[in-house]
Design a protein that fits this description.
The structure is a homodimer.
Chain A (H helix, E strand, L loop, with lengths): L1 E5 L3 H12 L3 E5 L5 H8 L15 E3 L4 H5 L4 E4 L3 H11 L8 E3 L4 E3 L5 E3 H9 L5 E5 L4 H5 L4 E6 L3 H8 L4 E6 L2 H24 L5 H21 L4 H4 L2 H12 L2 H10 L4 H10 L6 H14 L6 H12 L3 H6 L6
Parallel strand pairs in A: 1-2, 1-4, 2-3, 4-5, 5-8, 9-10
Antiparallel strand pairs in A: 6-7, 8-9
């Protein structure tokens, strides 16, 4: 099978590695921001973010998008959410009528001016239907590529075809038709994982009870937000919600961002510092996006999200704000 | 309010501390196994397990059980599950008709010879009704006592009275009538947390995907087991289930036990070694108990529990057993 991966970053290179493991003919296309990554892999070095060599995978630079997509039987969209519209606009004329498995996490602004799912906003924006399948679930790229047992949930009408192409012994794929629930979970978990990380900065490592309380409250609020978007509770209680929040809160950049904010440092300063070190803190904008989404959809009973937004975007002191956190009964 | 805590171990001394913080008249009664702990606190030293001083709390040794219970308006049962019947049998003649808040986690063998809830087996065994309220949720004792934000879920007809007596700024208590669900969650999470820990021994720290996959699968299986016992899914998806599994899997003895088993050491040997070091590994027997419970109730779709039982009680090698783990769709 001919598989084209759009986006040669951390997750794109991991998904290319998985597709290659399954015996596919894999092309990895890099955006105009990915040249340095492909310079390294083309020189036979490990991928700078994934830290693994990409053996047997053809790499193509950004001007070769048409060639990358020609004859593709499966496209994997691994551009981050900010890049989704620019990349898919360029890809649209060459995009074959095949499933597009998206590992992008986030919400975008629709033409109506409200936050909405990538699988809805991108087709509206590029003026062409896209057979999006959303890939959710707890899947750190490096671990997928290293064959650690991983559970992904693919959502959408073409989910089963994608699962058949990519699933296997180490990457277990379940499928659902609840693309609304799956995408919302992927977008929301970055926001909530940041909040769980704040406790580490505030109390130190002995804040297990508080972290677990916020984890529980996060799942509760994610369910309300998912249901408001037409998704289902079962998606939140499965790999897309509980699983992905677990992996995201356990470590990584969003947790690290939260920890520094919990130590009392201004969020804007921490985000700038991490960006300068090449670390994208998705949780920082994800909190504003999720908070905006909750208000647009009229979901008012989200006290943890409200508290996180107050801390990260309105300068509230983390200690008093979290001490006063209301938990749902 | 006069509060009597039965059991002067880690959790009993923490709950006594909470009751004292709330301004109650607190008596902490130690079982015949707790003398060494009370020797320390009576000498003005910190409690050896809790590592905090128990100021303002009256301590009573095991022969003074009648005196300990006299005039109690709330009893907190903090004896471990193995001790529940012996202690409650001795307490029965002196037990006033007041709520008994139980923090014990586990299942006991009923007169019918099957595993069942403590709140059902104890009254049957001692021949007297007990107004049990079960305390579930993510609550490490040391953190409750240190005023870290904690969410507990009290379950039973008298849950609200117990919440009123003990809840406050740092200990947030929600209430439910689903005592079946809450008790099952408390009993099952020790088994599943052990399983999540096995990955740390098997793969090392970069097994976040596998840990999260098992966390998700555990919640799924706990829901099936809770529903088979007459409990509700919402309890599993709240503080009693998701929250308590989170805190238990994040650290502590059950996770440590799992990690050593994951390194390939026989479970029996690890349990003996930890016991010799004074560490009770509840997860070890909890796996056998949960597995037996699942068979007695006819719940067959619990592949993670089956795998854990095979590893811990039947000597299956952790690597191959977990590599073949079936995840629920």
């Amino acid at each position: 099978m001919r598989v084209t991966v759009l986006g040669a970053g951390y997750m794109g290179s991991a998904m290319a590695t998985v597709a290659r493991m399954r015996g596919h003919d894999v092309r990895l296309w890099g955006t105009w921001l990915d040249d340095a990554l492909l310079d390294a892999t083309d020189a036979g070095l490990p991928h700078p973010r994934l830290r693994l060599k990409l053996d047997g995978i053809a790499t193509l630079r950004s001007p070769r998008l048409e060639e990358a997509l020609r004859g593709a039987e499966l496209v994997i969209h691994a551009v981050n959410s900010d890049g989704a519209i620019p990349v898919m606009t360029k890809a649209a004329p060459f995009l074959p009528d095949v499933p597009v498995l998206s590992v992008s996490k986030g919400l975008l602004v629709s033409k109506a001016g409200t936050m909405d799912r990538i699988d809805l906003v991108v087709p509206e924006s590029i003026g062409k239907p896209v057979r999006f399948v959303h890939a959710a679930g707890p899947a750190k790229a490096i671990e997928i590529a290293r064959r650690v047992l991983t559970w992904m949930a693919f959502a959408g009408p073409d989910a089963k075809a994608c699962a058949l192409a990519l699933g296997g012994d180490h990457l277990r794929v379940t499928t659902t038709d609840d693309i609304a629930g799956a995408e919302l979970c992927s977008a929301l978990k970055n926001a909530y994982a940041t909040g769980i990380g704040i406790w580490d900065g505030l109390v130190g490592k002995d804040a297990h009870n508080a972290r677990a309380a916020c984890f529980t409250q996060a799942i509760h609020e994610m369910r309300l937000l998912v249901e408001a978007a037409g998704g289902r509770a079962e998606t939140v209680h499965g790999a897309a919600g509980v699983g992905d929040l677990h992996v995201t809160a356990a470590g990584g950049r969003n947790r690290a961002f939260g920890e520094r904010v919990g130590q009392g440092r201004p969020a804007r300063e921490v985000a700038a510092e991490m960006l300068a070190a090449g670390e994208l803190t998705e949780g920082y904008p994800a909190i504003a996006t999720a908070w905006r989404f909750s208000r647009e959809r009229g979901v008012t009973d989200v006290p943890l999200l409200e508290t996180l937004n107050a801390i990260v975007w309105e300068g509230a002191a983390p200690g008093p704000a979290l001490a006063g956190l209301r938990l749902s009964t």
